[in-house]
Amino acid sequence: MQSTEQWSSKIGFILSAAGSAIGVGAIWKLPYVTGMSGGGAFFLLFILFSLFMGFPLLLAEFIIGRSTQKEAISAYRSLAPNSNWNWIGKLGVFTCFLLLSFYSVIGGWIVIYFVKGLFGGIISEGAEYGAVFNETIGNPMLAIAAQFIFLAITVLVVAKGIQNGIEKVSKILMPALFLLFIVLIIRSLTLDHAMEGVKFFLAPDFSSMNSQSVLFAMGQAFFSLSVGVSVMVTYSSYLSKKESLIQPAISIVAMNLLIALLAGLAIFPAVFSLGLEPAEGPGLLFVVLPAVFDQIVFGEVFLLGFLALFLFATLTSAFSMLEIIVAAIVKGKEEMRTKYAYIIGILIFAVGIPSALSYSTFSDILIFSKNLFDSADYLVSNILMPLGVLLISIFVSYKIKKSTLREELLQHSRLGATAFNIWFFIMRFVIPLVIIIVFLDVTGILDRVVGLFS
């Protein structure tokens, strides 16, 4: 059944899709993963993966969604009937479910900090912000309550649908986020020793890189652009066939890379200026931001504004994750949307509780030396998303007619056959090969194979 709703405008689609892509991926996760993975070399790999794998994949998911005008599972079933290829959509729905279960925990942390900021409870003279963060997430009841509030907001917006919910909110909040980032960067760059942080972030040093870092960079590119989980299949199914696919994809990738650059320029100069550790981990942003705004006149006000926008950027990503799950169940029957949005929200909350308690009650439970939160993050970012990307690249380049791909990709575009052939080559050969090589290298299989011939 065809979707009954569409985006009211192309800019609404771009900002909503960019909000899905940016959110926590670029603002929260990229700085701390970059800090833990060597800085500039990791960021360079992230850019390359975003441009040469993320961008083509974004177009691929757009083609699947816009050509069928159906949500993820039904889209694959429509293009490859009487086959098991619809499991790509099911894998995407499962991945989004798991992703939102721990993502909502981060959203809860932001909710806590925002409420504290309202009452002036974050910035204080001589405060040890690392200890404040650890104390905050170490309170089990507080972490669970904040996670619930974040998911409740997400459910309420998604229940209202596309134009009245997701699109309306994204149009206002995404531009405001850019403006406040500029303020933060200006202050961060004027701190003492700020250039050391800029050098760490932008000057590549490959001496500390390994196969795990490459896997993280690839996973981060997919995570930041929301590709590999068919989110963009569902979002593009609401896009009119009168619109070009290439221009929105370029805009989304460009905005994602710009926000990633801004996040790094805001965080790392401050990290080095304030003598903090770039490999701080998931709490990096929550430690650095208060310390930076502490150095600004009316810092509490600016911090509150940033937390508000950061919360909304995080929510836009959460909207897209919940939307793909709801859309897969509702299948165009909009009268069922509200009911299932609430049911799915409750289930996600329940599954996310162990992640919320990973820094308190369940802190001693480890999986391969990672707590439950980090294990869920690793599974989604570095296994499920690359697997989804691999399957999508194979599906698009082998199961959809080349003529259909060419027509959808070049529709309302000035690009010609050469651009299409380059894109098709990347989808069929480059992306699967890169993913397979990276996985073989991380697992050590590649070294053993090379050893047999050396």
Give your account of this protein's structure.
Helices cover 76% and strands 1% of the residues. Helix 1 packs antiparallel against helix 9 and helix 4 crosses helix 15 (372-399). It starts with 9 loop residues before the first helix and ends with a helix. It contains 18 helices and two strands. By secondary structure, the chain is an all-alpha fold. A hairpin with a 2-residue loop joins strand 1 and strand 2 (370-371). A two-stranded antiparallel ribbon has the order 1-2. The radius of gyration is 21 Å and the shape is globular.
Number of strands: 2
Provide the structure class: mainly alpha
Q: Fraction of residues in helices?
A: over 70%
Shape assignment? globular
Numbering strands along the chain, what is their spatial order in the largest sheet? 1-2
Proportion of residues in extended strands: under 5%
Sequence of secondary-structure elements: HHHHHHHHHHHHHHEEHHHH
Mean pLDDT: 86
Rg over alpha carbons: 21 Å
**Cα-to-Cα separation, first versus last residue:** 56 Å
Largest beta sheet, briefly?
A: 2 strands, antiparallel
Please mark out the parts with pLDDT under 50 across 5 or more consecutive residues, or reply none. none
* Structure annotation, total helices: 18
What order do the helices and strands come in, and which of them pair?
Layout lengths: L9 H27 L3 H29 L3 H8 L7 H32 L10 H9 L2 H20 L2 H28 L4 H9 L8 H15 L5 H6 L9 H28 L10 H10 L5 H32 L6 H20 L9 E2 L2 E2 H28 L2 H9 L6 H27 L1 H8 L2
Antiparallel strand pairs: 1-2
Helix pairs in contact: 1-7, 1-9, 1-11, 1-13, 2-8, 2-9, 2-11, 2-15, 2-17, 3-4, 4-6, 4-13, 4-14, 4-15, 5-12, 6-7, 6-13, 6-14, 7-11, 7-13, 8-11, 9-15, 9-17, 12-13, 13-14, 15-17
